[in-house]
Protein: phosphate acyltransferase
Organism: Paulinella micropora
Amino acid sequence: MSQKEPDSQIGYLHSEDTYPELIIECDSRSLCTDEAVGKDLWKKAKYQKRPSFNLVGETEDEQRTYGKSDIDRIWVAVDGMGGDYAPGTILEGCLRAVELLPLKIRFVAEPELFDLAVQELRLEDKLQRALSNGLIELIPSGISIAMSEEPTMVRRKCRASINIAMDLVRIGRATSMYSAGNSGAVMASAIFRLGRLVGIDRPAIGALFPTKDPNQQVLVLDVGANTDCKPSYLHQFALLGNIYSQYVLQVEQPRIGLINIGEEDCKGNELCLKTYPLLMAENRFNFVGNCEGRDVLSGNFDVVICDGFTGNVMLKFLESVGSVLLEVLRAELPRGRRGKVGSAFLQRNLVRIKKRLDHAEHGGALLLGINGISVIGHGSSKALSVVSALRLAYSAAHHNVMSDLKKLSTAIVN
């Protein structure tokens, strides 16, 4: 059956003609408060199982259709309803990402809101082209989880976009998932649907911070998943961060530091004092000592460990630094004709500074410690942040970081 041309009633997520083979599994044991909505929505989609599913080139027919270069693309599931500007800007970022990165996207969203966003942002042509080329597939969801709702709502709204995207990873339809939605809900959904790695008590959110070395980043974790931590949690964060730094960031022997108010091992609160000897006694990574706040971006550390409360404060502070610095530079540049000439000479430098400090350039944080790859984006994510986060998801999947994390999990248990 031929595809219909988009019109005022786009209906991308409603039409079987546009997307005839929606593939999804929903846990029937979950409680749904949107059951009636879910049934009405999901009966519009045609379900069918594929006997064999290969994440890099599915079937021979698809390989011939997509071409050799497309065979190397990997599937990423995207929570299209997550974020302050969803679903429009999330879709816009995804459309850019499939042009820049070797990936394909399964985009999960509420049909009516999705259709409105496509029309408002005039994305019809770009979307239709991506759909025709097999770079994006659309999957309908039920009522999504709002930023203000409790994380436990993932148990009641089983057809929420976060849950469906997570399920795509669980059943092998995607190598990783991305969401800029409710971070607590993303973590809860990941734990309920993917599960924790054996031996890991608490997953941690790891964010990449820039350093004074333009070629180096520092991985900081936890930045928000666990506001209250035990020393054993921080020890596990160090093990997880060491693996990620080695195999994804390609750091041969990551230097691991513990956030503290001083370099001496006798300083700090009770958590730091009890964690320090655990890290010092560990021979599976290179612990180099305490890291003061001024040293986080120094380039002297590759991984920095802290509780989620401290990490989140640092993350939010860093997000403000780039914009404040650029505003200060603009205010201090000379005005008038001489100022314009000077600004023209400095333009490239300002762009480079912004690129290094702008949090949109580092648009996602990896949820480490779960049995799958999940990237959490900023709630205020726009298109550039989405592209950056999807680049992170691709990098983690491409470097097969889960294989190494599972080996670590086995070693912890043994």
In short: The first strand starts at residue 74 and ends at 79. Residues 204-320+352-368 form a domain with the Isopropylmalate Dehydrogenase fold (CATH 3.40.718.10).
